[in-house]
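Crash report, auto-generated. Payload:
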Amino acid sequence: MPVLAREIEAAGIPTVTVSMMPELSTKYRASRVLGVEFPFGHSFGVVGDSEMQTQVLLAALEVLTSASEPETRVDLNIEWPGDRRQAYKDWQPSEPSPIVKHNIDAIRKARQDAADAETDGT
Amino acid sequence: MQPDVTVDSYAFLPRAFRSIFEAAPHFDHEPIWAPFDKPLSEARIGLLTSAGIFVSDQQPPFDVERERNEPTWGDPTMRVIPNSVSQADLDATHLHINTTDLLTDMNVALPIERLNEMAATGIIGSASPEHFSVMGFQSEGADVWRTTTAPEIAARCHAADIDALILAPA
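Recovered output after restart:
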């Protein structure tokens, strides 16, 4: 997404990024960032909570209108209202994504190879 | 500008991933800035989500089958979501997040209804007639985003007279 933010802004369209990882958005030098401490996939809040969604959207528009220089970051002071541990579980896919699975398999293979090499050496 | 940092960027991230993102370097490219100088009450606002949302009867899903076979690849294409879309019209394919909530209430990721309410009450001038959706896992595809998808979105923003775009990485 930082790639898109940058290219779209370069084309003359002002952008504001509502980010669950504002530190990363800042590293990529997004022009305007609203940081939110919400589970992934939930930039604007909770299902069915239109008041919360409106608050987040208004905050994003406030960053848009008030930021006067590049790389402005504002953090939203709204706590995730539900059980955080449950929210942490709920945002994740039912099975590991291909890249995570790929990396886990690679780590397992490396460990197995190392174990095999040790066995061979004895 | 020194940010008043209160948000923990890693609060909901699995611990194993944290060090990867923390180690990411600060990019040394020049900052980019398009000024927003229109009164908000006259501005046309658009949305861009990376939650893999698409209009189920009219658009192909993001290609997750290829991603399953090529784990470092993510579909870098874009879908246009009409502002008039209904919840029932939407579907999503994304292998990195659980899409159950946004398929119950799109506004958690793509707040079209909230935006339309703000247009109705005059907080903003208007909602864009179209919004944009991509699938957020990109590594090899990032070049296509840069060379093709971003210019395509920007051109459509200009054509639709969008004054600003709100980006919501999923």
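Post-recovery validation: Chain A touches chain B through 76 residues (CB under 8 Å).
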